[in-house]
Amino acid sequence: MPAIATQALSRRFGEFTAVDSLDVSVEEGEIYGFLGPNGAGKSTTVRMLVTLLKPTSGDATVAGSSVTDHPGDVRLRIGAALQSTALDPNQTGRELLALQARLYGLGRGRARRRIDELVELVDIGDAVDARISTYSGGMRRRIDLAAALVHSPEILFLDEPTTGLDPLSRARVWEEVRRLNAEAGVTVFLTTQYLEEADRLADRVAIIDRGRIAAEGTPVELKRTVGTDVILVRTPAADDALVRRLQEIPGVDRVDRHGHDLTIAAQDGSRAVGPVAVALHQAGVDVEELVLRTASLDDVFLEVTGTRFASDDEEQES
Amino acid sequence: MTAVATRRATARPAGFATDLMSIAGRALRGALREPEAVLPALVIPIFFFAVNVGALENIGPAVGIEDYRAFQLPVAIIFAVTGVNRAQALQQDIVGGYFDRLLIAPVKRSALLLGLLVADFVLVIVLSIPVLVLGAVVGVEYATGAAGLIVFLLIAGLWGIAFNGFSYAIALRTASAGAVGASFILFFPFAFLTTTFVPEDALTGWLATVAVYNPVTYVLAALRSLISEGWDAAALAGGLVAILIVAVVSFTLSTLALRGRISRG
């Protein structure tokens, strides 16, 4: 039985459809990446899966129970770290974890042992006894993650767990997620707007755009749909005639045009880039940028949605 | 970073009593760490007691009051207990996402509200103590003795939490710091359009009419009866029924607001 399965899961807010007939299946022990830009429907999906928001139609089964019919059963078996770190700045880290432990029915001794384990896991050290208001952004994320894990959930939902973190803190969160998955077998449902995060962390990735799944597969499978290598050309002269000309070059698999950007997919980019440059020169076009690189999920996103990610994601990739 | 616990099915619903005490305990801890939130409840009643007694003590006999200090002490206690709550903290929980964390936990939904009211009850009882000490210092005695003093405190505490239902309804409905802050305005008609300064017989015009419908009139009558008259079943029943009516209205509003917030997500 899959850990998470949605059946035509939908959520509307008035006339706006945030999530549109979503069918997703996540296997036990998998890290599943839900990739999309702001407003794509990622957080709305997670809020339905963690029982915070009722679907307008459709249903989802999480850890074997329906989120609409048996939300209480679902809550016992999931943990969640949502987009805004859900913390009380007036409590200490230990008080936060102890309260979580009590609400999940852990006895005092068991709660104490579990909190000690989590303090070590998220590497919060003595700061666990300081007020959360004194924590840095990275520490807040880590104590939030610890709070989501107090009751040893089978499925962990992480809604943009590294948004706003510096690269070092981001790498630490990734390491903890991998460890939880590998050593404790926790299934992870991860939303992200960072391509690199989905690429490096997820076993499978779904690209969500305007409430619908635009593509799904392993990062490798998805990138293969674009090509092994990509040559990016930016030119104001990009038009259909130029696209046709470039497509005739041996070794070029496909050429897509989005405004001034041409995306040229090739199995061996290093062989194709020379003829491409020559063809551009012969066509007499003014080339602003010409880049050869391996395909990324960004290329997949462009391929399936027709737009690139926002600039803050490009920063993340740099 | 070496420890990862093996997966165990450890979670179970903690039960209503544990949920209630956990939520109340956290709310009390939060109140102790925000003394600025409870300071007005200590200062305002003592300030008004001093001003009212200082300015109006001499008119007491003219309106049929023998001991104006005893007449003012219940007013001070109402000022001490009205509007002392964790609504601002609840609003911050909602905006900051902590309320979502509680909703994802297997916690009884009613405990989220009732736990706050339990904490408020403890808080207003504690905040009433300085006012009672003030009463003792200025020579106010209870015709009903020590038992009357305890009933006095309980009635004040019950009024405090009945009123708080409105503040929680506003916090849950709006999640707006401004709206929650403004909810204090509700305090004024309750506290002043009543027998705050003179007895009911001495009120005239529209104020006399409004006071008849103001539940605080009956709460003050019940509190004053414990000080001045001895055990007066009718006055006590009047006060408790008034509190009950306010509680039914305010708790219904706050429960509906909680349900609305849960269903809206």
Identify the notable features of this structure and list them briefly.
heterodimer; A: 318 residues; alpha/beta; Rossmann fold; Alpha-Beta Plaits; 2 domains; six-stranded mixed sheet; five-stranded antiparallel sheet; 12 helices; elongated; B: 265 residues; mainly alpha; ATP hydrolysis activity (chain A)
What is the CA-CA span between the terminal residues of chain B? 35 Å
Q: Can you identify the CATH class of the largest domain in chain A?
A: Alpha Beta
Number of structural units classed as domains of chain B: 1
The share of residues in helices of chain A is: 25-40%
Order of neighbouring strands in the sheet with most strands of chain A: 7-8-9-4-10-11
Global morphology of chain A: elongated
What is the overall pLDDT average of chain B?
A: 90
Question: What gyration radius of chain A follows from the Cα positions, in whole Å?
Answer: 23 Å
Looking at how many chains there are and whether they match, the oligomeric state comes to: heterodimer
State the total count of DSSP E strands of chain A: 15
In CATH, the topology of the largest domain in chain A is named Rossmann fold
Task: Tell me what portion of residues of chain A adopts beta-strand conformation.
Answer: 25-35%
* Major pleated sheet of chain B: none
Low-confidence stretches of chain A: 311-318
